[in-house]
Each structure stands twice: as structure tokens, then as C-alpha cells.
Amino acid sequence: MARRHIVYIPGKNPKPPAEEHQKYIWRALVEGVRRAEPEVAEDLSKHQDCFNFIGWNFIYYQEQDTMNRHLPWIDAQLNKHGPTEQDIEESKSWHRKLNHLIYSIVDHFPIILKLLRGELRSTAEETNRYFENEGGIASDVREQLKEVLRPLLEDEDDRVLLIGHSLGTVIAYDALWALSQLEYLPGKVDTFITLGSPLGMKYVKRRLLGSNRTGKQKYPENIRRWINVAAEGDVTALDRSFADDFSEMVTLGNTESIEDHSEGIYNYFREKEGLNTHRSYGYLVNPIVGKTIADWWVENNDENNINEC
Hints:
Number of domains: 1
Number of strands: 9
Oligomer: single chain
Strand content: 5-15%
């Protein structure tokens, strides 16, 4: 009998202790499902044992953030049920469009990375650090995810929903490639959800594991369905359409489908510094994400011969 597993891998930057961080990520995930399918959320909320959280950030940064300073903003997000006119206007503001243009230029000409400032430079440098893999740090991070996924993919009957945010989507993609192309595990991830992902960037695609190969071996073969969600104004999600960037995966039969949700999607998370269109909590409470998780949960319910987690 198959079992259900939700695996979540967060994005860049130091995070609060994994146990605390996991608690609030789960809370946001269930709230997103509740906004889409309340009855499904009620059932899902009873099964936190199905939730696998990959706390890779301490390995990578050797430091932790504190949860307390984020709690008021998380609570505000969970009690806010849609973007305001101000949120929408700021998501499409001229300075975000300018940042998008600058980041696009850097994506084509990485040599000018040193000219970036602030969050743009931080994002670019963190991505670059991952690909350089100094001291094997990226390999260590991937291994943490692979340790969780291996037993799930060794059994073809298990049902896996993998959710990645930001740099976590790159880690997840590379781990899936290695598990299918180097370790040849037979199982597949049912649904791979990428939130605010840089995977569409030219700079990133050129450096992904398998990028130097051709044909089916160039891509992971263990993703049944890939759903990408990119919010308005999220510069990290520079290229918002993966269906065209990775279309060869469908043509070759590596995956059944790639679906983009990138028009009219708003991440209205606010914090002390203002609107943050990239934060994971804002993505998770979005009804599009919630509906995707709800559909997966219902599809793999007990009536379909699925055991508990």
C-alpha cells in the first residue's frame, strides 16, 4: 500500500531553527489549502506527519535567524486574504521593473555581477556560490534532500509532492537529476511545485547538473508533473515561463507536463522593509498553490488505496 509524503525545501538566507521554521511553513501551507479547499485543509491539518522539511540552511550558512522578528508579519499575512490595491501597484512599480531589466542584463552578461547592489546582488552571489560548490557545500546540501527522497523513490508506490522555494528549487532539481540519472531510482515525484524559482535564468540553466548532456539524460526523469508559480514583481523568478524553457523534457518523455502560473499571481507579504514579493509564506497562502496541493492530497487519499504517511 502506498504512502503520502510532502517534502518542502526552503530558499536562500539563514533561517530560524528548522523545527520552528517547519512549524510556520506548515501553518502557511495548510492555510493556502484552506483558502482553496476548506474541507481538504481540515483533513490535511491532521497529517503533519506526512510533512518532511529540509532544513539545509544552517549547513550552508553556519548561522541562524530568529523566528520572533518574523512572527508579526507572518500572522498578518495569514490573516490577510488577498492583495490590496497598494500591493498590486507596488508589485508593478517602476523600480521593480528596473530591477527586472538589470537582472536580465546580468543574466546575459554575468561578468557585470559586481555592479549589482542590495538584494539583486545577494541573490546572484548566493546562486553563484551554490554552483561553485566550494568545499563541496552544494553537494552536502543536495545530499540532505536526497537522504529524504531516496527511500520514497525506491518504492514506486509511494506518492510524493515536492515543493521548493527560490534557491531550494535549484537544489531540488539537481537532486532529482542525480537520483534519476546517477542512482537510477525507479520512483517518481508525483508533483514538483516551484515557487519564486530562478530555474529559468540562462545563467542557472547552463550550470544545472546534466546541462552538459544530451537527450533524456540531460534532465531528471523522475517528475510526473511540474507546476511553476511566479508572482508579479518577484525578480528572483526572472524568467517566469518554464513550459518553454524545459519543453524538451515533455517531448522526450522525461515528464508528462510542465504548467506555469505567472500571470496575475500576487505575493502580498509585508514586513518592516515593505512589500516582499518573494517570501515563501506569501507564496504558500496563494489559492493557486493551495489548490494544487489540495488536488494532490485528494487524488492520493485513503479511498484510492493509500495508507497514512
